[in-house]
Amino acid sequence: MNPHDAYLIALTNAPNIESLWDMHSRRMAQYGFDRLLYGFTHYRTNTSLGDPDDFVILTNHDAGYTERFLGDGHYFHAPMVRWALEHEGACSWAILREMAESGTMTQAERKVLEFNQKMGVTAGYSISFKSVSVRSKGAIALTARRGMSQDEADAIWAEHGEDIIVMNNVAHLKILTLPYTRATGRTLTRRQREALEWVGDGKTTADIALLMGLTAATVEKHLRLAREALNVETTAQAVLKAAFQNQMFVVEA
Q: Which of 204, 211, 226, 233 has the greatest number of beta carbons closer than 10 A?
């Protein structure tokens, strides 16, 4: 079996997001792309990408970069993010030069470009994944190692680009199947998850109390704690968000 196929098999068998991301980061570094930033949202609208706390964000950039790029909202004005929202497929960052020279880059986008250059994020590729709904969008930015020019990154892509796209597409699809919570988020307990699953099956509080062998008040407590853990106001929102995060109907370890 060739290394490419072996990697894809290992990727599809990753047991959790942490091991998948470690594996994928090391694999992309072999091609010279040693800093990755993956993002996905289920809550896109015409004017927003949703609450950042609801994004799936995976990165191996240092904290000094990610805290400013994400925390200060630079991502919202990043020119390659705009490209990813408007396109699907892969794009060389050489397009940034074209955007700047043609006058199609906004002042806010120029500031993000300057920030990236200051932080050593100067060459690379972006992959925008095919969306399954108008509300969802996922993309990954592959930053070339420090010192690599865009021409060198383009040369690597000319030789290995198709394989890199396939590996990132598979990683993206696998990520969407795995449980995920942000570092600031809270994982549902077994009882909270079970109560939400029964709600998702259309059961009433009285039904759930009987099925779980609990009082109705205790069921309501589990549902309230689930809403708090997921930072939502209604149980319907909790069911939807838990489903998006793959925290429902999961196999116990």
A: 226
Name the DSSP class of 75.
G
Compute φ and ψ for 124, nearest 5 degrees: 160, -165
Structural domain for 45, as ranges: 3-175
Residue closest to 145 by CA, chosen among 38, 67, 29:
29
Give the C-alpha separation, 179 to 162, whole Å.
28
CATH of the domain at 39: 3.30.450.80
Encoding tokens for residue 40? Answer: 């996905």
Residue the block writes with tokens 């894809």 = 8
Alpha carbon distance 49, 202 (integer Å): 30
Tokens of 96: 């940034």
159 shares its domain with 71: yes
Conformational region of residue 231, where left means phi above 0, alpha means psi within -120 to 50, and beta covers everything else:
left
d(CA 108, CA 123): 20
pTM for this prediction = 0.85
The amino acid at residue 15 is P
Same domain (yes/no): 153, 218: no
Residue 253 is predicted with a pLDDT of 45
pLDDT tens, position by position, 165-187: 999 999 999 999 998 876 555 78
Q: Which helix (DSSP H) or strand (DSSP E) does residue 31 occupy?
A: none
Q: Using DSSP, state whether 161 is helix, strand or coil.
A: helix
Mean pLDDT score of the chain: 92
